[in-house]
Amino acid sequence: MIPEHVLRKMRAALLVAGAAGCARTGASADAGPVADGSTGGA
Amino acid sequence: MGTTLAGLSLMVEPDFLGATLPLFEEGVVKCVEWSVDLGWSARGIPDWLHDLLAEYEAKDALYAHGVHFSPFSAEWQPEKDSWLANLSREREARKYRTLSEHVGFSTVPGVRIGAPFPFPFCAAARELGVSRLRKLHEVSRVPVALENLPLAFCEADVWAQGPFLRDVLCGADGLLHLDVHNLHCQLENFGCDPVALLETYPLERVRTMHVSGGSWADARDARHPHVRQDTHDDDVPKGVFQLLEQALKRAPNVEAVFLERLGGTMTSERDAEQLRADYTQMASIVTTSTSTSTSTSTSTSTSTSTSTSTSTSTSTSTSTSTSTLDDLASYQRSLIDALLRGEDAAEAFRAASPPEWRAITNGYEPRMLRLAARIANSYTLKD
Fold first, then answer.
1. Rounded to an integer, what distance in angstroms lies between the CA atom of residue B363 and that of residue B155?
2. In the predicted model, what is the mean pLDDT of residues B239-259?
3. Which pLDDT does position B381 carry in this prediction?
4. Which of B8, B10, B13, B56 is best to mutate for the A interface (most A CBs within 10 A)?
5. Averaged over B114-124, what is the pLDDT?
6. Which residues in chain A are contacts of B12 at CB distance < 8 A?
């Protein structure tokens, strides 16, 4: 099972996306705050 | 056969998260695959995804997938160096069980990103594949797999891909990442026998698999009105589930089967419910196959003898044994150039390809070249 604190983060990301009006449409790729600032190509 | 796990290929888009969150809450997602190069932009990855990957890493149930390396591009481009540098950093950040990339080439000089396209399965391509697989293994330090290609320009290449992959994977001690929908596309587009085609692949080398849906495109061909394409944007067809069952019966070493669905393609609650239903059906097949395959795995583990029925149809590609890497590069540049110039130019490639490849390209089907042109013009990113 996935720990509750991880599930909460996932729900929170959905809430933020839902507030932006795109939870069900995928209109934005912005699903929550970014975890790290890794850079690179591709 | 050990336990085979059902899992998801992760996407960061909100619709994907919304549709799959109930599956994580139920605890039925036993492993995950992450397309590592999707996370290498300056934007990075979302916080929740970082934590989720860590959970599966801790369970040794995290798998890496690559999208943009283009292992069979004949010419080495500077982007490959930065891709490998990112892969090296990824290896330091997370522990994956395996890494998979695609058969096909998606980049040529001047084109940085694109969809994977077929190439002649010649000896030079075989050597190239072995070399690139070794390079990926050297950097990732995990077993590396190649995913079968959905697009084929003619039926001969459909039958030739499995034996070609066997050669490459044997040469590099690599794995096969079997994408069932990719195989389904070829069955739909060329009307082949599913089991006969499945058995041309080195199934004993399969550790990971993909299941997905796709879409139909207008073929502008009276005999074949539609062509199947691997777009990951719709429900999983019944035929894919049937093929999954057949594949699992014949592949004795499968660890993980992942459902793929492109983020941003679910527009209703019905789509989300169907994704969960597809996942449940896939997981059920995986569980059933795992528990019943022990008795059959021994008899199907040596698949080298299964390609005899198709050996004659591979002759067009194997006849190019004298072609060089430069010849392959020339083919790739001219094909991409033709595809990007539109459907008419793509059709004309049959007779306008570099002379050394003309005997092969004359056999290409116009409907498949037109499809490739549409794909190229939808997904290609030029310098």
1. 9
2. 98
3. 79
4. B13
5. 95
6. 29, 31
Residue B292, pLDDT > 80, answer no
- Mean pLDDT value across residues A10-37: 61
Is there a contact between B186 and B238 (Cβ–Cβ < 8 Å)? no
Rounded Cα–Cα distance for residues B300 and B308 (Å) = 15
> Which B residues, 25 through 54, put their C-beta within 8 Å of a C-beta on chain A?
25, 27, 29, 37-52
Q: How far apart are CA B66 and CA B133, in angstroms?
A: 12
How far does A41 lie from chain B, in Å, by closest CA?
Answer: 6
Separation CA B40–CA B290 (nearest Å): 35
Which chain B residue shows the shortest CA-CA distance from A24? B15
Rounded alpha-carbon distances, angstroms, from residue B202 to B190, B240, B306, B334, B343: 21, 19, 9, 31, 34
A positions 13-42 inside 8 Å of B (CB): 13-14, 17-18, 22-42
Q: Which residues 70-109 of B have a C-beta within 8 angstroms of A?
A: 79, 82-83, 85-86, 89, 93
pLDDT digits (tens, 9 = 90+) for B145-162: 999 999 999 999 999 999
Q: DSSP for B1-26?
A: --PPEEEEE---SHHHHHHHHHHHHH
Q: What is the pTM of this model?
A: 0.90
ipTM: 0.85
Strand, coil or helix: what is A5? helix
Tell me what pLDDT residue A1 has: 86
Nearest residue in chain A measured CA to CA from B50: A35
d(CA B294, CA B302): 15
